[in-house]
Amino acid sequence: MAIKMRCAESTRSFLFIFVPNTGIMQEFFNSEFLHNTVRQWCWLAGVILFVILFKKYISKMISLLLFKIVEKTEAGDLVEEFLRLILKPLQYFIVLQTIYFGVKTLHYPFVENDEVIKGYVITFLYGAYRLLLIFNAAWIVSRIGDFFVLVLKHRAAKTEDPWDDQLVVFLKDLIRMLVWTIAFLSVLGVVFGVNIYSIVAGAGIAGIAIAFAAQETLQNVFGSISIFTEKPFVIGDLIETEGITGKVVKVGFRSTRIRTIDTAYMTIPNKNIVNNKLSNLTRRTSRRIILNLGLSYNTTSQQLQKIVNEIKTYGENHPQKNEEINVAVNNFGTYAIEVLVEMHFNYMEWEKYVVLRNDVLLKINDIVKNNEAEFAVQSGVVK
């Protein structure tokens, strides 16, 4: 009997230690900490923790629902790209909303007895929330815009007009500029209480000052519009402007980026391209090689004539010949008999042109040497 009683007491002690007492637990959760019950704090922490842990899966489900609107179009096979663009900003949006609505259910600590300070705290927190919300929404809209630009890029890839590819890049920059400009104006109006309509309506001198300050930016914008309307070049063209030669790789809202012959990337403001002389080398129908050969005065007339004829024959029979070949004795210079060589070949990329020029120079050198003539010491080759 004594043994049974001791066992019963041990069991009660075990249950008291390891099984929570409902009354004690209720009292604990109903107790206050920083003007809020422990239950409220636990609920808030639990919801935030849940969202942080599963935000990726929640945002992915929402993203897939959003993608339903485009899955039957040509963008149907771009779901992975859509998720890559939209997941990150959507995750921040979900966490932001969770924290906002969770904190909104709490009593603000330390300020319950001071309505002035409480008002400042609420205004600050609400203003910070709206600021983050506006920029987060702009981020989401900007990424959606990037996705539709990607869809247009895939469509443009199926056409032969290079202007389609160029327009896609321009639209991407335009959408981003519009989205973030609207976001900035929204922050001024919603968060800081600035009357945007009165600023726009009564800009007056301030508007003129702003326009003057942004003069260069506006010139670049109008320059980009001019490039798109007049079409002096497209992406991939080889152009020369301001002493810079290179291939166009991007035409943006403010500037144009080109890759020079030595593979360096140069960014040129659009206003400079529009206002300065520009040569589109890609649209040339031919490549020209001009040489001014200086032969020694020891060269006889027979040697000169033979050299001229052989160089002309070589040019006439060249498979890349484009126009008439001109080779003739041009002048008696101070140190040399000058022979002018002018050859026109079919247009080709710069790399191929360099190889062609090399071959032509080596061939002319062989012709001169084979005729036992010599170049004058003071002569040079002029491009």
Layout of helices and strands:
Blueprint: H1 2-18, H2 22-30, E1 32-33, E2 36-37, H3 38-67, H4 79-104, H5 115-156, H6 162-191, H7 196-201, H8 204-213, H9 215-230, E3 238-241, E4 244-251, E5 255-260, E6 265-269, H10 270-275, E7 278-280, E8 286-295, H11 301-316, E9 326-332, E10 337-346, H12 350-370
Helix pairs in contact: 3-4, 4-5, 5-6, 11-12
Note down, in words, how this protein is organized.
By secondary structure, the protein is α+β, with helices and mostly antiparallel strands. The chain has three domains: 32-160, no CATH class; 204-282, SH3 type barrels (Roll), CATH 2.30.30.60; 285-370, Alpha-Beta Plaits (2-Layer Sandwich). 60% of the residues lie in helices and 15% in strands. It has helices at residues 2-18, 22-30, 38-67, 79-104, 115-156, 162-191, 196-201, 204-213, 215-230, 270-275, 301-316, 350-370, and strands at 32-33, 36-37, 238-241, 244-251, 255-260, 265-269, 278-280, 286-295, 326-332, 337-346. The protein has a five-stranded antiparallel beta sheet.
